[in-house]
Design a protein that fits this description.
The complex is a heterodimer of chains A (114) and B (143). Chain A is an all-alpha fold and 114 residues long. Chain A is built from four helices and no strands. Chain B is mostly helical and 143 residues long. Chain B contains six helices and no strands. In chain B, helix 2 runs antiparallel to helix 3 and helix 2 packs across helix 5. Classes of the chains: A mainly alpha (114), B mainly alpha (143). Chains A and B meet through helix 1, helix 2, helix 3 and helix 4 of A and helix 2, helix 3, helix 4, helix 5 and helix 6 of B.
Chain lengths: 114, 143
Amino acid sequence: MSFLAFFFIVASLLSFVVAQLILKRAMEVSATSGLRNSRFVSLVAIGVALMTVSFFLTLGLLQRFDLSYLYPFQGLSVIFITITAAAVLKEKLSVRLTIGALLISAGIVLVSLS
Amino acid sequence: MTDDTRNKKTQDRPSGFGNPWLQLGLSVVCVLVSEFLLKRGATDVAEPQSAFSWTGINGLASPLVWWAILLIVASFVSWLYVLRYIPLTVAFPLSRVVDILVPLGCWIFLGESISALRWCGIALVIIGLALVAKPVAEIEERL
């Protein structure tokens, strides 16, 4: 894998993970203070912008690599999002959830390796 | 967020079409179909030689990509709705069920074969999904 490919895979993964965290935060804001407030709108706008970046980077990667090659990296997103949601959003992370997330990631990697 | 507020939120959740678990399912189906459309569309218009194509924007030349975008927008709306009711640590791992539905779809509908290693991977994902989904089922039962 070239450095360029690695860079774009990490960039698309990172923008995706951050977008999910921001969107979850936006929906928490909406639950307490409704949809018509500037905080909610700006959070959703940032989230959508990051999702868009991630989408186009993925589209660029799909032109060069097989879907099965790009899959393991999607598997990593499960681990990243579970950890960051617990750390940043203070969601409760049980041992069971952690093991579940690890198994899902390992399974996705196996599926794409075969 | 404390346990109390989270349980209260679960209690408040709507039923029927507004059920967040149904919406999570809809979101997954839309993503599943869009993955196939994107791969086909991206391959149709691929220009690996051009540096600009790293941005993926040339992919917009394919009509399949536009159909995929439509589905992604639909899945996005459902997903936002899901996030309102379900913690990200639960909803996101569950949404990755799509990663085994893609190979299973290829097996069932396209007659592609699945190797032993791939079956192992699919089994791991299912066990992981069960582990993540179990505590949720318990919360629902208590209510």
